Amino acid sequence: MANREHLDLLKHSIENWHGWRKQHPEILPDLSEANLSTANLSAADLSRANLTGTNLVTAHLWRADLTLTNLSRANLTGANLMAANLGRADLTGADLSHANLMAANLTGANLMAANLTGADLSRATLVSTNCTKAILTDCRIYGISAWDVELQGATQNSLIIAGHEQPLISVDNLKIAQFIYLLLNNQEIRDVIDIVAKKFVLILGRFTLERKKVLDALRDELRQHNYLPILFDFEKPSSRNLTETVSILAHLSRFIIADLTDSRSIPNELRAIIPILRVPVQPLLNILEEPYGMFEAFKDYPWVLPPYRYIDLPTLLATLEEQIIDPAEQKAHELMKL
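and the corresponding C-alpha cells:
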C-alpha cells in the first residue's frame, strides 16, 4: 500500500515533493493502491514510482514525468496525460479509457492488455511500444508516430485519423492509419502510387546463368517502354514469408511476366499469385519446351493469358510489344471494368 508520508507530500505540495525527490533520488516512492482521483499532479516527477493499482481517475498529469513508472492496473480513466513522459512505463492492464494522451511519449512503454477505449493519442509517440492485447477502440490517432509497435491480439476498431476540426475518418488498423492519412492529404504520394500501379512489371523466372540473360534482356527492353520492371529471385533464401513477398510485389504490378522455360520454383510461386490476385499474367516459353503439367489448371483464370512461345531471345525482344505488352495491357483494362 502507499506510503502515507509520500502520499501527503504529493497531494499537498508539488514544489516540496520535487525538493524531496532531489534530496532522496535513491528512494522509489510507493503510491500503490492510493486514491489520487482528480489530483493535480501536473509536471510532477513520478519517475520510477510504484503506482500499481492507483486510482488516478480524471487526475491532472499534464507534462508529468512518468518514466519507468509502474502503473500496472492503475485506473487512469479520463486522466489528463497531455505531453506526459511515459517512456518505458509499465501500464500493463491499466485503464486509460477516455484519457488525454495528446503528444504523450509512450516510447518503450508496456501497454499490454491496457484499455485505451476512446483515448486521445493525437501526436503521441509510440516507438517500440507493446500494445499486445490492448483495446484501441475509438482512439483518436491524428498525427501519431508509431514505429515497431507490437499489436498482436490487440483490438483495433474505429481509429480516428482526422484532427478535431476535420471530418471524421476512421480505420481499423494502427499501422495502416498513418499511410491512409498520408494518402488522403499528400498529392505526391497519390501520384507515386498511381505511377506504381501503371508502371511496375513483375518478372518471374529462373536465375541460372542462361535464363538470367533472358530475364535481364526483358527488363532492359521493358524500360525502353517506360515500365519499371522488378526481377525477383525465388531461389535465394528470404527472411520474409515468400508468399507474402510475392503477393505484395504482384499487387503493385501492372502485369506479370512469367518465364516458364526450365521452370523449377515458378510453379509454386504462380500458385501463390494466380488464384488470389486479379493481375494479368503473361507466361513465356521457349518453343523447344512444353509447359509443365500443372499449368493447365491456371487456364480457368481469365487473367492468365495463353503462353507466348518464342524461338530465341532476339525474336522475343522484337515481338515484346505486340505479343506481350499489348495483350497484357488489354487484359488489365478489361479487369478494371469488372
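(Above: one complete record from the training split.) The chain has nine helices and nine strands.
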